[in-house]
Amino acid sequence: MKKKMMKAFDRNPRSKVFCLWIRNWSRVVDPGHRKRNRDKKQNKGENPMYATVIQPRMSETNGTGHISNTTLPVWFEAAREPVYRLFNPSGDMRTFPLIIVNMNVDFLRQIYFGWEVEVRIWVKRIGNSSFTLYEELYQEEQLCAKGSATYVYFDYENQKSQPISPEVRQKLEVHRLPTIMEESSHG
After folding, report:
1. 11, 79, 137, 154: which could form a disulfide with 52 (CB 3.0–4.6 Å)?
2. Could you tell me where the beta strands, DSSP code E, fall in 15-116?
């Protein structure tokens, strides 16, 4: 009986998603998984400016069993919060001086509920009044998405861009995208 059930289950295309969900769920409840996974990471000298771990929610899963494409821009934005604080340490939205003028996301592989994702961010370009961030999203150490976001440092009172201060520029400069990664991020 069990073999017949398994054969029927294997023929169902949704069964793979279900099996994946069951496998992933065991990782969520295993408190040692996170530490073991971090111990496996290899440091290749590509330290991101910021790395943010996000736990996917069931509500972010779509009908095909993976995370919805509309979720990734939200996750990338959440990972940028430390960058926002460089320009606005108080976090007061009434004085938030950045405007996003461009955002791009390349979807490379599916992302699933039950496994953490990590968003890594570097500074790709610093202009006079704007900067571009390069972002990568990993699940189980697999690159699943990459993107970029360009912001303008903006003076709302005068309705124009303003130069990035030397202090903030210096903090951004420390986290420049390594040249070798910059070349591969174009493709």
Report:
1. 79
2. 50-54, 98-107
